[in-house]
Amino acid sequence: MLTEDRKTQAPLDYFVQPATMTAPGAYAPLFDGLPRDVAALAAVAQGLLIHEQIAPAYGVMLADERRATVHVRPVAQILERLVTEDDRPLTTARPPARRLAVNCRHFTVLTVAMLRAQGVPARARCGFGDYFGSGACEDHWVCEYWHAETGRWRLADAQIDGVQRAMFPVEFDPLDVPRDRFVVAGDAWARCRAGNADPAKYGLSALNQGGLWWIAGNLLRDVAALNNMEMLPWDVWGAMPAPGASIDDERLALFDRLAGLTHTPDAAFAELRATYADDDRLRVPATVFNAILQRPEAVSTSAGALSGLDAPTGSVTGCRSTQGASMDTVRSTDGTSIAFERMGQGPPLILVGGALSDRSAAAPLAAALAPRFTVFTYDRRGRGESGDTAPYAVAREVEDLAALIGAAGGPAFVFGHSSGAALALEAAARGLPIAKLALYEPPFIVDDSRPPVPPGYAARLAELLAAGRRGEAVACFMTEAVGVPAEAVAQMRQAPMWPALELLAHTLPYDGAVMGDNMSGHPLPAAWTSAVAVPTLVLAGGASPPWIRNAAQAVADILPHAQIRTLEGQTHATVPEVVAPVVADFFVG
């Protein structure tokens, strides 16, 4: 039997050795001569790296090609890119514009690597921080290092420098983060399972996403990190639930057990290591799915593998992004290839997504509807794996939907969300063979309950996109079209999912064209009364702002065969377990 001293020593020995993601490889000499205290090492990392979403706070506007380094995994590749651009010692702080664009996970693994090189046990922890001013617990990574003087592990957030301390309410020492301010994923899981915390508060508030499924994904990433496999925040594999998906009893029990093991990883060290090694659902495979780039990727562990990082918009033909769904393509009238997935059995139902989304966004709702329908999700033109034949016209998108209905075998049910609801409504008005139509919060502005989209919005958007300023284009859309306050958009730009929005920024003018003049505060087109004859269900969230609920009512009032239903407590996000039963009952109930 191991003594208590030996039980403590085993993990210390393990977490002092460079490993797959933290080994500097051929760049180990760069660590010679580094300062030997945690504060100074954190300062080194801060002088080399810049968080891609907080770069504007340092006066830096990152071009798309410079953001690609957020997809680097191993420290050896981080070091390779650093010295390729600037071969001065690591202790020489680079100007902010010359720093490597990364996120919290990269600050963490570089700090872990430097500490281990000096014989200090250190490990990455994946969880949630409550100190970013949003009122929620935001997806985050920190370094946990062994503080020999006190004989305990401390949490160090190497990302938080003076600039960020001025931005965020960080009133504690970032090199000794209180454990009620950064909560490891397993503890967040346990709190929520016990009813002591709201799962919706754990995720990314800027994207209005969170829940047990998000916590479970971070818990699995934390388990991997405790086994020296520190993956990207958006790497997906094994037992991770799909976004918004419910979790079955078997996986609930699995995550309950993992939460217990990661709460005291030293005491449970042997069991944690064995559990990870023996369970295919937990171990990081040779290939994972990059949810930002929407493609499978080999888990490269060495330097010299950076060539593919210069094209973050790339995708792999034929990859599957949704469990149980098969990917296919259909040709639209103008020859554009439209990628789609189908799943389930029953009458055909096509889901039409809104702005800044591809088919993966509809996957949780599709899964919830699949027991009763053959559900089609698709990449609207210009997104994901679909083509983008110029010039754009709304009529081309209507033809895309017509092609999907044809692939489905004839008349289909159609569900549209946000601007996708406006597109579905336009398709019905143009006479597509739609059996029934369901519209979730089409974002029309029909009165003075909110300001209309300002004049010149479309021109400003086009100018930003032409200049390659995709992030600013998304921010322009958020503030001027959606009506999100500028300070909230600034928070959103710090979120790990922001790069995925930027990848779709070029399609924002398409959604603007779909919306037409219907965000001007004027009544909806009277022609819809005669043009849209299909039975229609209009849905609105009871917790959504008045202007969008007014829009839903206006649509229901103008269509001759429409009904409206308010889903109490819901917002603009479609929660599958709430929306799916209502939609299914309307279509086939």
Strand pairing plus helix content: what structural class?
alpha/beta
Q: Helical segment tally?
A: 21
Please compute the radius of gyration using only Cα atoms: 25 Å
State the strand order across the main sheet.
12-13-15-14-16-17-18-19
Describe the protein.
The N and C termini lie far apart (63 Å). Strand 3 (122-129) and strand 4 (137-147) form a beta hairpin. The chain is of the alpha/beta class and 589 residues long. The chain folds into 3 domains: 4-310, no CATH class; 326-447 and 522-588, Rossmann fold (3-Layer(aba) Sandwich), CATH 3.40.50.1820; 457-515, no CATH class. The longest helix is centred in the middle third of the chain and has 15 residues, at 249-263. The radius of gyration is 25 Å and the shape is globular. It has helices at residues 4-14, 38-48, 64-67, 75-85, 104-117, 162-167, 185-193, 212-225, 249-263, 269-278, 363-369, 394-408, 419-429, 457-466, 470-482, 486-492, 498-503, 508-515, 528-531, 546-558, 576-588; strands at 49-51, 100-102, 122-129, 137-147, 152-156, 182-184, 202-204, 209-210, 235-236, 287-290, 295-298, 326-331, 337-343, 348-352, 374-378, 412-417, 434-440, 536-541, 562-567.
